[in-house]
Design a protein that fits this description.
2 strands; single chain; about 80 residues; about 10% strand; about 0% helix; mainly beta
């Protein structure tokens, strides 16, 4: 998934839905059925994603200054029993 952000010293919100997640392995073609299969997440200015069964390079600008993450909550969904 690619979410473009504008550089800003202000806090920004990013919301991610299950249907927005993209596997990094191009052999994984099916959408994720639930959050239980998500084992890793990362935020990078650039990288490689899988799109239509092919690996695609995504370029972004390098971050400038200090990077901070706060208030990273789980909202919605259901916990497995």
């Amino acid at each position: 998934m690619v979410k473009k952000r504008k550089g800003s010293p202000d806090w920004q919100s990013i919301f991610v839905s299950l249907n927005e997640l993209i596997a990094t392995d191009p052999k994984v073609a099916n959408p994720l059925a639930n959050w239980q299969s998500v084992t890793e997440s990362s935020m990078n200015p650039s990288g490689v994603i899988a799109r239509d069964g092919q690996q695609v390079k995504v370029d972004g600008q390098a971050w400038q200054g200090l990077r901070e993450i706060r208030n990273l909550p789980w909202e919605g969904g259901e916990y497995a029993k």
